[in-house]
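Tutorial, part two.
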Amino acid sequence: MLRSLVGSEMCIRDSINAEYGRLPIATMADEEENTGPKYEYDGEKHPEDPTQQHGKGKAVYPNGDEYVGEYEIGKRSGAGVYKWVKMEVDEETGEPKIAMDEDGNKVFESEYTGGYKENMKDGQGKMVFPDGSTYEGSWKYDKRHGDGVYWYSNGDIFSGEWRFGLKHGRGTLISKETGAKLVGTFTEGQFVKGKWVMDDATYTGAYKDNKPHGPGQFMFKHSGNRQEGSYQIVVPGPDEEADPEAPAPRPIWTGGQTHAMSAESGLYQTI
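Running the prediction step on this input gives:
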């Protein structure tokens, strides 16, 4: 029963790893050497240098991206909205072109709304990614940094601390598929310590590669019982050949004795 419970819940996954491997990093259209505007600009200019954008304005870049917001001495600084245009392949020429809707308007695939500092996302902001996932929270040096919430395209949700684009610090990751939660400490994007909260049990222990690893303890909600044990990865022996097409090995729970709480004393007893 225990192994069945654990096996059914092991499908919780850390979607941000998939995000980094799957999504291209969205770059701004003007993130080249600053040699002056290479795009259409309509807005306020610096009073002492009319070649510099300064104040509120709108920029339309050659690749179709658009920015509307505040500038300071030629750079995006302050509140603004940046939209990344969607590209598609022309059926006749085979060349990439800007996607248009039925009314002839450009189609945008991602959008950032929030603060900027020297052309980089900074402060509070919301980013909608091409796959539909969304991050809302703190930014620094163009990276998720500080407290924020990430809604993944598969329905998973992470709420907690970030450091330069990776989950780092206290946080909670919720799996939509199972309803299970990882609550605890993340380091460089990996869950390393905390609780794995399921419908009828909670596991507390250490983790490796976002999976339980080493000594830990299960607490069963309905019975109040607890069981200590250990998760270990079963690897092929020295005389066994590993199957390159086999899925990655999963940690196996080896449980010890189960302890039940006495209704009379309130203390745990071995059963």
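The longest strand covers residues 49-60. In part three we will examine how such features are distributed along the chain.
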